[in-house]
Amino acid sequence: xxIQLKKFGTTLVSRPSGKEAWLAFQPTLNQISGDEEIVVDxxxxxxxxxSWADEFLTPLKERFNNRVKLHNIDNSSVVATLAIxxxx
Amino acid sequence: xxxxxxxxxxxxxxxxxxxDTLRRWDSAGRIHSVRSGPLGHRYFLQSDVEQYFxxxxxxxxxxxxxxxxxxxxxxxxxxxRDVFQAxxxxxxxxxxxxxxxxxxxxxxxxxxxxxNNSFDxxxxxxxxxxxxxxxxxxxxxxxxxxxxxxxxxxxxKRVRPGLTSADEALKVAxxxxxxxxxxxxxxxxxxxxxxxxxxxxITLYFQTGDAYLYLKEHDIDINVRHAKASIRGCFVTIGFKxxx
Lengths: 88, 244
Known about the structure:
The structure holds two protein chains of two kinds.
Chain A: E1 2-4, E2 11-12, H1 15-24, H2 26-29, E3 38-41, E4 47-48, H3 50-64, E5 68-71, H4 76-86
Parallel strand pairs in A: 1-3, 2-4, 3-5
Chain B: E1 5-7, H1 8-15, H2 19-28, E2 33-36, E3 41-45, H3 46-54, H4 56-65, E4 77-78, H5 81-98, H6 101-122, E5 132-137, E6 142-147, H7 151-157, H8 166-175, H9 189-198, E7 203-208, E8 211-215, E9 224-226, E10 234-239
Antiparallel strand pairs in B: 1-3, 2-3, 4-5, 5-6, 6-10, 7-8, 7-10, 8-9
């Protein structure tokens, strides 16, 4: 499965919107089969912060562990956010 | 005539502060007076008073320091998070026109994290004015955010009761992963802002209560200092002059 983050918006900054994205996406995530890879595509995301990411990416990683792959992570705020979340 | 001299009483009325406050501003160098007349009374240039209102960080500081709570002007006031989100996107779009997207996204991310922090930590507990002041000045390349919330000390004291001053609380907020909303997994916001500032030609002034810090590129330590005037909540300016 490919999750295109731009479909949640391109300025992903607040906790409530991250949490809402996570909750709204549950029915889709529930359809994922046992060994399927989950690609999170950051293409066209203009701004990302740890607040948003902590509500969406952190639980996604907790649920699917190493099956989660991150693509197109070249945006500077995406790089900075992933670096901070990685230090937790 | 903008170079007209006006009395301290008239200037205070125009600025909406007391004469004593204006004297303190003069002493602190925030606005300059001209001494005139046989008794050396203070006068102010009308142009300086007008300029004061055009300077976004002065407006924000005035708002956050004022003892009387008033709503900011509609162009700066974000009563709810939705309004802030819309204005933040507008800012990011404007900044992207004059700078690469990657650069615009860092400044927007820092502003977004700080603004949303204000909402996260004051939801349901705003002491007077709900929401934040958010403004930017593309000419002078700075962003201003302010809230009249509880401030970082009150927020962090809930999880770290030993904290006694705004100085300590500010340092903890910028150096430790700790959240005033425990047990939620939070507390990265200001560390993230710090990482952006020290890795890029961006500056940050952050004040809460009577403590402030100033951060710039390559800074390693967090040096918290005492501010002359205490404020409610938080007052922040992000400068991005050297990014463009």
